[in-house]
Design goal:
Layout lengths: L2 H6 L17 H14 L3 H13 L1 E2 L10 E2 L6 H14 L2 H17 L4
Antiparallel strand pairs: 1-2
Length: 113
């Protein structure tokens, strides 16, 4: 709410913000945080890896590369990674740490048997 709206009693215009804690991307952000800490890689690499593992599907790699993933035609890895990094910066630290620790525990535990 702006000062003018408080002074005049007007309602805020536009759609209200959604709570960031209810965002479905929080799992991918938490996985990226956990991968960054566990593998000691950079933030961009961690987000790219988390996107590939959660949202991508494997494709035939180009010569000289070990693996290749593709995500939906509407997004590129660079765009999706930038969106998730921006969302991660808006997350409150407590939610980010809790989600990151839970993701790290899942990654260390491995797949269910």
């Amino acid at each position: 709410m702006t000062r003018k709206q408080r002074r005049t009693g007007q309602k805020p215009s536009g759609r209200p913000h959604k709570p960031i804690a209810d965002d479905p991307d929080i799992t991918t952000i938490a996985n990226a945080d956990a991968l960054r800490r566990l593998l000691q890689i950079g933030e961009r690499e961690a987000f790219d890896l988390a996107i590939a593992l959660r949202e991508g599907w494997p494709i035939e790699p180009k010569p000289g590369s070990q693996a290749a993933f593709e995500i939906s035609a509407m997004n590129s890895f660079r765009n999706r990674s930038a969106v998730l990094r921006a969302k991660a910066k808006r997350l409150p630290p407590t939610i980010r740490w809790q989600a990151s620790l839970a993701a790290a525990a899942r990654l260390l535990r491995g797949p269910k048997k």
